[in-house]
Amino acid sequence: MRYQISGKQIDIGDSLQVHVKQELGAIVQKYAERPTEASITFSKDRHEFVCESSVHLSTGLTVNAKAHANEIYDSFDACGEKMEKQLRRYKRRLKDHHSHRATPVETFGAPSYILAQEDVGDDAAEPDTLQPIIVAETQTKIKSLSVGEAVMQMELAGENVLVFQNEGQKRVNVVYKRSDGNIGWIDPE
């Protein structure tokens, strides 16, 4: 597994990198087969250290976790516990989907835009146009998944919405978390 361990405006020592590789390697090997890469980023938020981790699995799924603590090692340990809990929770489902999937998840590119937020308030002037201002334009990957895999990927990534290509119909679909706690699925015809 490839590791990318970095710090945002803080120095990451060699002993922390060794600790991260050993602990994360043990967690991922215990619950997932053939992880491909892991990205761990440390940062400081006021008095706390923040650890954000993302592990990409060979099945095409991604597991994300984030934790805060007063010490940098504690932030990673809390993040590792969250990731272990997610992987343990979905271990059976991951194995079931992996046994049915002989090839990695297919992806295709699509443009992705970041729009400027409108000023909202009592003093905000009426906009001249309803066209949003594009701040950034990037390319994103849309995965080809079954609905069950899409729900699992959304939950593992800790996201509220996931756009994917439905493997069955080859159409773009959306799964999302509803305010009542259930999962919504949009399947346009």
TrEMBL record:
InterPro entries: HPF/YfiA_ribosome-assoc, HPF_long/plastid, RHF-like, RHF/RaiA, Ribosom_S30AE_C, Ribosom_S30AE_C_sf. Interacts with 100S ribosomes. Gene3D superfamilies: Ribosome hibernation promotion factor-like, Sigma 54 modulation/S30EA ribosomal protein, C-terminal domain. Required for dimerization of active 70S ribosomes into 100S ribosomes in stationary phase; 100S ribosomes are translationally inactive and sometimes present during exponential growth. Residues 131-184 form the Sigma 54 modulation/S30EA ribosomal protein C-terminal domain. One of its GO terms (biological process) is negative regulation of translational elongation. It comes from the Bacteria. One of its GO terms (cellular component) is cytosolic small ribosomal subunit. Keywords: Cytoplasm, Translation regulation. This is Ribosome hibernation promoting factor.
